[in-house]
Specification:
Length: 267
């Protein structure tokens, strides 16, 4: 599949299954985002200047004057996002895409159950990949970028092939080899699309925040939560389709069947 075809495939899968995909993300994201909003709102600094950073649909708030307890809680919640939420959703989205390939249509409850059942394995792979990328970044940055690209499909490999730990990383490394530029380009394009959509959803809430600074916590986190629910399924779908596409190119895996099926049902 070409780059455009792969992105189009992700949109088609999303279009056909958006309720399930968005519900899975909402069940995980909303409680955590709400907790972040409560922590920020009770920190006693709602009227002070603030900065917000949105990363892949997640909104992080930085304010001067945060109490040590509020700052510690914010850091803990950010770590929960990185070590729990992101791996859980990555595994869940990879599995639901694979189930769609097989002609099944799992419910949100089934997707979440699978994600939880594989959480420790997914978490281990995510930590190992994170350490490898971080170590590579310390080595003149370029190795870290290479590691990030080569380990892009480690979680889909774990979910679909049931390989664990370093074997999932080795599997991803072998699949991405010779296609690093393509994987990087598609991932970057998906991130740009998600970033644009995130901006569209968060801009109105940012304007509301400026007009009512005392209530910025609610509006900021509401906008960030909506953006995450909308964009995270798409980026996860793209990553999983990259994995399938690499298997087509290297192993003759029949993604064409999936393309025909999804194209027919989307019309």
């Amino acid at each position: 599949m070409g780059v455009g075809e792969l992105i189009d495939m992700a949109f088609k899968i999303y279009q056909r299954n958006w309720k399930t995909l968005m519900l899975v993300v909402a069940v995980v994201e909303v409680p955590l985002q709400l907790l972040q909003a409560v922590v920020a709102s009770t920190s006693g600094v709602s009227e002070r200047p603030f900065q917000t950073t949105t990363i892949n649909g997640h909104v992080f708030v930085s304010q001067p004057g945060l109490s040590s307890a509020a700052l510690t809680t914010s850091i803990v919640l950010a770590l929960v996002q990185f070590f729990f939420v992101a791996p859980l959703l990555a595994g869940a989205m990879a599995w639901v895409t694979y189930q769609l390939y097989a002609g099944k249509k799992p419910t949100a409850a089934e997707v979440l159950r699978f994600g939880l059942s594989r959480l420790l394995s997914i978490l281990l792979v995510s930590v190992l990949v994170g350490l490898a990328v971080f170590g590579g970044l310390l080595l003149l940055i370029v190795p870290g970028i290479i590691f990030a690209i080569r380990f892009t499909v480690a979680v889909p490999a774990l979910v679909v092939e049931d390989v664990r730990g370093r074997e999932a990383m080795r599997r991803s490394w072998r699949l991405v080899k010779d296609y690093s530029g393509r994987v990087f380009g598609i991932s970057l394009l998906a991130a740009l699309i998600a970033g644009i959509v995130t901006g569209i959803f968060t801009a109105p809430f940012a304007i509301t925040t400026i007009n009512s600074p005392g209530g910025f916590h609610f509006w900021t986190f509401f906008g960030g939560t909506v953006a995450a629910i909308v964009t995270r399924p798409f980026t996860a779908l793209v990553t999983t389709l990259i994995y399938f596409d690499l298997r087509v190119r290297k192993e003759g895996f029949d993604l064409a069947v999936m393309a025909q099926r999804m194209g027919a049902t989307a019309r």
